[in-house]
Structure formats: C-alpha cells, structure tokens
Amino acid sequence: MSLKLNVVTASTRPGRIGPKIAEWFHGYAARHGAFDPVLVDLAEFELPLYDEPEHPLTRRYHHAHTKAWSASVASADAFAFVMPEYDHSPPPALVNAFVYLYHEWNYKPVGFVSYGGVSGGLRGVQAARATAATLKMMPIPEGVPIPNVFQYLGEGGVFQAPEPVELSANSMLDELARWTMALKAMRQPQQAAAA
C-alpha cells in the first residue's frame, strides 16, 4: 500500500525560502521510500482569513477555496509541515489553514521541518503541535530543525542539507511511517470500523 505524505510549505509571504526547503524534503522523502510524497504549497490555495459560515465539523463548505483545501488534506495519510517561526509562533497562514477543517485532519501523524535562526524554528513548532493535537493529529516527537538556515542556501537558493539535518529527516520519516500505519484503522470511515 502506498502511503501519501503531503509536504506542506506553510509560509505564504513573498520572498519566502520555504519552497526550496520543501523541495529538498520532498526529494529526500521520495528516496526514503516509505511514502509517496506530494508537494503542497499553502500559498496556492489563497485561503482568506477563515470565512466559512458553518462550523468545520459539519463539512458543509460554501467556498471553492475551502473545498479545494479539504480535498488536499483529506487525500493525505500523513503530513510534514515545512515552516519558519514568526515571533516564536507558527506562520499565521498555517494556523488559519488548520482552523478551516476538522475531520480531514483526524488520526493522521504529522512531523515538522522547521527553519530559522539559532532556534531552527522550534518555538513555532511547539505552538503548532498543540493545535495539531487539538485536531486529533498525532504530532510525533521527531522533527527536522534547521538552525541558521541561510548558510545552507547555495546557488539559486537551493537548500543543501548538512548531514545532521539529513539524519533527522531519516529518523522523522521512519517514525512517521510507523505512526501512519498504526493509525490506519482509526482513519477508516466509521462504517468500515463497525463492520
């Protein structure tokens, strides 16, 4: 069975470096072999500040942007969020994207590839983990922090991962695969679970 991993670029601001890091992680995940990774750029969904008139629990979405986001999230078995931190917090676009949906997130594991200055984005990840857990995702302990990220951007802005970052990516993908398989039964529709 092929497991689908959405590698989500969580920053939407102009001039961001997130897509370069997401491209690297996507390629690394493909070589790892446990997942069929898919690049997902949050900016492409153009989600406005949460604007659905009904609660996400109902799944009665009124807007095309929400329906497209719902389909993308629902199709995944697991997530890797590629994110910086802004003022010790996750990118506002990611928090907004979280609150648009509910059921589509449930019982799926999530890992974080974070980047920034000396902290490597870890303070933002800690805040994102709490929101993910509230949405019944399983934020795994393993992660890929990239401190002082700009020193690893080569010609054309291509991200060149040092060995410790690659080792972290391998560990996170190993654990993400285990959790994805373990949570598989919980991700099945209730009708199938009851049968």
Summarize this, please?
With 195 residues, this protein is α/β, with parallel strands linked by helices.
3D structure, described in words:
There is one protein chain. With 195 residues, this protein is an alpha/beta fold. The protein has a single domain, classed as 3-Layer(aba) Sandwich (Rossmann fold), CATH 3.40.50. 39% of the residues lie in helices and 16% in strands. The chain has seven helices and six strands. The chain has helices at residues 18-32, 64-74, 92-100, 122-134, 163-182, 184-187, 190-194, and strands spanning 4-9, 36-41, 78-84, 109-115, 138-139, 144-146. Strands 1, 2, 3, 4, 5 and 6 form a six-stranded parallel sheet that branches. The two termini are 21 Å apart. 38% of the residues are buried.
Based on the model shown, name its key terms:
195 residues; alpha/beta; Rossmann fold; six-stranded parallel sheet; 7 helices; disordered C terminus
Domain count: the total is 1
Number of helical regions: 7
Unreliable runs, pLDDT <50, ≥5 residues?
Answer: 190-195
User: Residue-averaged pLDDT, rounded?
Assistant: 95
Helix amount: 25-40%
At the third CATH level, what is the topology name?
Rossmann fold
Approximate strand percentage? 15-25%
Distance between the termini: 21 Å
Rg, nearest Å? 16 Å
The CATH class: Alpha Beta
CATH superfamily: Flavodoxin domain
Element pattern in H and E: EHEHEHEHEEHHH
Principal-axis shape equals: globular
State the secondary-structure class: alpha/beta
Q: Examine the secondary-structure arrangement and name the CATH architecture.
A: 3-Layer(aba) Sandwich
Number of strands: 6
Specify the biggest β-sheet.
6 strands, parallel
